[in-house]
Amino acid sequence: MAVPVPWSTILQALPTVVVTAKDLWNHWSSRKTAPVDPSADVRTQLASVAERLAALESAETEQARIVSQMAEQLQGIARRVSIAYWLGLGGLLLACAALLVALLR
Fold first, then answer.
1. CA distances from 39 to 44, 45, 94 (A)
2. % of the chain exceeding 70 in pLDDT
3. Which of 40, 76, 82, 94 might form a disulfide with 44, Cβ 3.0–4.6 angstroms?
């Protein structure tokens, strides 16, 4: 059985979600990365590139986790919408049948 969507909980948490999203955006948009110095030693260049690659891999892993969570939430919403659609259609058919019975009496 599907659990109803707790809209009051979602609406209460919305300001926190917005602030957290802005903080995350500010963190990544203001992050200063020094370009690799082409005149530096090769080992220094490789270390810099390796560090930046590790940061990118970490960010990509976090993004994949977030996308996975979003997909799960969308799947749950789609399931609930489908149930609501069929319940609404059933109610409409029941109302039409009741109207027809009332008119034929």
1. 10, 9, 79
2. 93
3. 40
